[in-house]
Design goal:
Layout: H1 6-9, H2 18-62, H3 72-86, H4 92-104, H5 108-113, H6 120-127, H7 132-144, H8 149-152
Length: about 150
Amino acid sequence: MVAKKKNDLMPKTPVLSKTENRFMADISAILREGRSKAYAAVNFAMTAVYWEVGKRIVEQEQQGKERANYGEYLLTNLSRYLSKNFGKGFSYANLRNFRQFYLTFPDREICYTLCSKLSWSHVRLIMRQDNEKARHYYLAEAREQNWSVRVLV
């Protein structure tokens, strides 16, 4: 008995015709496009939600006053409540980020037009920029040039 080579044990990939290769490529392109659209829709929704949560936190803190009587307990209690009811993603630090997101970009249009096209990681990095003009520059460039988060770092 002759020992089989490792290559003989592997299933052979069928040779496809040009038509079959084109078909496979078309299906792959459809799936990639669908995944990309799904990611963009989820990202848009989550960015809008984070902005709305930040807005609501600020409203609760200020309770109609010009400035907030900021109390750590509000975010601590909210973090516990949301984590219990919705799972991960609602740490004290993340709620502070939501709050800062709203305070940094209080104009809803900026949130929806620029921030929604970027990931939450992009937005968190950009909103730490002290200079407002620099923030708007990075928002626009990251969106238009499709910069990764690493490019921003």
